[in-house]
């Protein structure tokens, strides 16, 4: 069997009035990408706590979780290691902007869903956006 390390993160798709919040960040391979706020689940944290903390840190928004949208898996290599990443995504409603995003975030934008779909860099994010929009219509 392939030898790999597992990492767990969670994050939020913040949607309101047909607008979605995207962040612009540099990923571990040095490529700049538009995506949704997310991050590692810390020791002692649940995945919902981590997702709510990450949207504050990376987007500056205090949010409420509406529902779980999906669980995404992908592999990548970092420092000679093969990593299997599992990310749990939640649909979120923004409550208030409470701070400026962390410095590693290059930009934060509210975009129409169609514009966001064009900017999103990962295929799985485009699928997540579709699922989040459907969930909100229900
Ligand atoms: P976190 O935000 O959880 O702290 P991180 O910054 O450590 O994460 P990732 O965002 O998981 O790392 O990115 C690590 C690598 O995985 C990136 O360099 C990119 O190549 C790849 N990657 C990230 N997101 C995806 C995705 N949705 N689909 C495929 N590959 C991805």
Task: Please provide a written account of the structure.
By secondary structure, the protein is of the alpha+beta class. The protein has a single domain, classed as Nucleoside Triphosphate Pyrophosphohydrolase, CATH 3.90.79. It has 3 helices and 7 strands. The chain has helices at residues 47-59, 113-119, 123-137; strands spanning 5-16, 19-26, 32-35, 38-40, 61-78, 81-97, 105-112. Strands 1, 2, 3, 4, 5, 6 and 7 form a 7-stranded mixed β-sheet that branches. It starts with a strand and ends with a helix. The mean pLDDT is 96. Bound molecules: adenosine-5'-triphosphate (ATP). Adenosine-5'-triphosphate is lined by residues 9, 27-29, 38-40, 72, 74, 76, 85, 122, 124-125.
Q: Secondary-structure element sequence?
A: EEEEHEEEHH
Structural class: alpha+beta
Q: Ligands in the structure? A: adenosine-5'-triphosphate
Quaternary structure state of the chains depicted: single chain
CATH architecture tag? Alpha-Beta Complex
Provide the CATH topology.
Answer: Nucleoside Triphosphate Pyrophosphohydrolase
Terminal CA distance: 42 Å
Biggest sheet, in brief? Answer: 7 strands, mixed
**Beta-strand segment tally:** 7
Per the principal axes of the C-alpha atoms, what is the gross shape? globular
Low-pLDDT residue spans: none
Helix content: 25-40%
Number of helices: 3
Mean pLDDT: 96
CATH class identity: Alpha Beta
Strand content: over 45%
Return Rg in Å. Answer: 15 Å
The CATH fourth-level homologous superfamily: Nucleoside Triphosphate Pyrophosphohydrolase
Number of domains: 1
